[in-house]
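pinging the channel bc i need a second pair of eyes. not urgent but kinda urgent?? the chain im working w is below, pasted from the shared doc
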Amino acid sequence: YLKRTLPNIEKSTFIELGAGTGYVSLNLATNKAAQVVATDHCKRILKNLRCSVHRNKVQKRMRVIRWDWNDKMPSNLLKRRLKGKKSVASPQSSRERKVSGNSSSSNNNRASFLISKSYFECSKRLDRLLKRVNETEGKANINPTSNLYCLACDTLYGISCATLLPSSFREFLDAYPGSIILNFFKIRDDGSIFQRFKKECNELNLNVVVLRTPEECAKHELTQPEKMRLTQISCRSRDQDLYDVPFSGGGTEMKDPPRGKCKQCESNPSKL
């Protein structure tokens, strides 16, 4: 569905919440998405996800990060740590250790190297490398306001999820304004979980727009279109209408009644 509706999937970054087996994330990575981050909270699930990443050979495009919805959003969600950064020591402290250790050593060759021109030239290069590492530390690899999608696939399977997920959505939108959140799930009860989810989103000043059900759902017996819901989550500003314009993936199919005065209430104020 995403491959069909998004024209620039190769330039897009996707964050999946509650990735589970990683089926969605792995498909996006194998379809050459710019960057894919799969998140979950269970250690066994994360271990299985990392194994799947290596088996499918998508290490350059896909990463696995732990994100428990009870906790804050990971600070390294869209950041890469340079390889070997932890093992690189400060050049000054490294130089001091070598000099102090050499004072008690009888190795004349090693002592002559420590005071040689090549050693200090190597230290200068290390200084420049560490400076570059410190300058790039903490910067995101992408433009966070362009082509960034947060996906939650089949995550509303309990009241606890309906309570915790909206706060994670809100935190993500605050950190990356302009991004798009898509929540795709199956209704397994009488709809009370979805109603609770919308209530929590409303308290956090979030819009929930129900989009047209993907036509791919009709191809499988476990995803009957009448039970599937695709929603878009966005922040609601003061000067904003109750619902935003949906993303290009499809038009709206159902909406809650807009909040405001109806014609009967305007004609009869006693009903207000």
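so The first strand starts at residue 13 and ends at 17. and Residues 124 and 169 are 45 Å apart (CA to CA). — does that match what u expected or am i reading it wrong
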